[in-house]
TrEMBL record:
Keywords: Heme, Iron, Membrane, Metal-binding, Monooxygenase, Oxidoreductase, Transmembrane, Transmembrane helix
Pfam families hit by this protein: p450
Lineage of origin: Eukaryota, Fungi, Dikarya, Basidiomycota, Agaricomycotina
Annotated InterPro entries: Cyt_P450, Cyt_P450_sf, Cytochrome_P450_fung
GO molecular function terms noted in the UniProt entry: heme binding; iron ion binding; monooxygenase activity; oxidoreductase activity, acting on paired donors, with incorporation or reduction of molecular oxygen
Chief place where the protein resides: membrane
Classification via PANTHER family: CYTOCHROME P450 MONOOXYGENASE ALNH-RELATED, P450, PUTATIVE (EUROFUNG)-RELATED-RELATED
Membrane-protein topology: Single-pass membrane protein
Top-level taxon of origin: Eukaryota
Record has Signal as a keyword: no
UniProt name for this protein: Cytochrome P450
CC annotations in GO: membrane
Family note: Belongs to the cytochrome P450 family.
Cofactor(s) recorded in Swiss-Prot or TrEMBL: heme
């Protein structure tokens, strides 16, 4: 009787593990079959995919290396999310510009809302709201209309050159000041100081903190493990 009970307990203990293994195997086989219709790319591991092979801080470096092996259009998998990477400007224009109605949508990024970037048009899903935002954007920033910002841009460029000549060691800070000051002048009509403007420093710091978490490689981890 004791032996029979112990056997049943052992069976109950093994069943959940067996279920996990079978489920993982079925997903792995389904993914392999699905990958026949995707561009070439590195072979993924079961469950994990290619996440261990990707530099999450500089994923473009990994994709450049893979591009040299698999071509300008490659596929990979991060956990259970398929990823197609474009490694060529020519391919990007052919897909994202000439076929924009097909490929203009953006992927869901689980890090947008927690980090306060869900309002940003650059990350919005393709739809009526995005098309309305684009029409509003083009009213002010299309090529012929944006010419009114040219004098301000030239003045800011001159300030950056002076900063580079005075303090060439902080090249990144001067470039960030230039780009941020142009944006804040055009959007908010805010006149920044030539160097060390407090609002510019705040914007640069915020971007440094947030952008690293908005990459698909990290967003997919939060999507899979929201806790």
């Amino acid at each position: 009787m004791v032996t029979s009970v112990d056997g049943r307990l052992a069976l109950l203990a093994v069943l959940p593990l067996s279920f996990i293994v079978i489920t993982a195997l079925k997903q792995f086989l389904a993914k392999r079959q699905h990958r026949r219709y995707l561009p070439p790319g590195p072979s993924p591991l079961p469950l994990l995919g290619n996440i261990l092979s990707i530099d999450t801080k500089q994923p473009w470096a990994t994709y450049t290396q893979w591009g040299a092996v698999y071509g300008d259009l490659i596929s990979a998998r991060i956990l259970d999310q398929e990823l197609v990477v474009i490694n060529s400007q020519q391919v990007a224009q052919a897909l994202l510009v000439k076929r924009s109605r097909v490929y203009s949508d953006r992927p869901y990024l689980a890090t947008l809302e927690p980090f306060g970037w869900s309002y940003n048009m650059g990350f919005a899903r393709y739809g009526d709201e995005w098309r309305l935002s684009r029409r509003i954007w083009h009213q002010t920033f299309r090529a012929d209309s944006a010419l009114k910002f040219r004098p301000m841009q030239i003045r800011r460029a001159h300030e950056m050159i002076v900063n580079l000549m005075d303090d060439p060691r902080h090249y990144y800070a001067h470039a960030a000041t230039f780009s941020s000051s142009v944006m804040m002048s055009a959007v908010y009509d805010y006149e920044t100081s030539a160097r060390d403007d407090p609002l510019v420093l705040l914007v640069v710091h915020a971007i440094e903190l947030v952008v690293g978490m908005l990459t698909p490689e990290r967003a997919m981890i939060l999507k899979k493990f929201p806790f």
